[in-house]
Design brief:
Blueprint (H helix, E strand, L loop, with lengths): L1 H62 L4 H5 L10 H24 L8 H13 L2 H9 L6 H4 L4 H15 L1
Helix pairs in contact: 1-3, 3-5, 5-7
Length: about 170
């Protein structure tokens, strides 16, 4: 009888352990899935914030169409019609440059298939605006290397040289 009782106890313990292990596996899988969902939601939030800020910049340029050529057609600041236009260009330039930095900093949080598109946006924005190029060169120290390293190599070198020269 003792052997039967011992066998029953061991069987019960083994069943409890097996049940706990199986339950733990399911709990781990559920936790993993929750983390994946949270990461996906985080990516969606980042994407939504980037597009929202991009729309704000586009709205600003739509409200001030005279500024658009400075950011898409390489119009130079010296061509500003008056001091107010020049100040608007400079303000919009900081806004655009800050947005470019934000994109660069958030790039790794974007889905892999979207990342090349954002990189292309940054390079195109840089190449189509003398004002942005000059600002980033003059104020390279303000911006993260995450942005500067995505821009054409000569731009990064020039920006770093100017920043070093100002520091001396």
């Amino acid at each position: 009888m003792d052997l039967t009782l011992l066998w029953s106890a061991l069987t019960g313990i083994a069943a409890g352990i097996i049940g706990a292990v199986i339950g733990g596996v399911f709990a781990l899988k559920a936790t993993k899935r929750q983390i994946e969902v949270m990461l996906e939601q985080g990516r969606g939030d980042v994407n939504e914030r980037l597009y929202s800020q991009s729309l704000e910049i586009m709205r600003f340029l739509a409200e001030h169409p005279e500024l658009r050529p400075y950011f898409y057609n390489n119009k130079e600041l010296r061509e500003a019609a008056n001091e107010l236009e020049k100040l608007r260009v400079l303000s919009a330039d900081e806004m655009a440059s800050g947005f470019m930095e934000l994109v660069a900093l958030q790039l790794s949080l974007q889905p892999e298939h979207i990342q090349p598109r954002w990189k292309a946006y940054l390079v195109d924005q840089y190449n189509s605006s003398v004002v942005v190029r000059e600002h980033l060169a003059e104020c390279a120290g303000w911006y993260a290397d995450d942005l500067l390293c995505l821009l054409p190599i000569q731009a990064v070198e020039v920006a770093k040289e100017k920043a070093s020269a100002k520091a001396v």
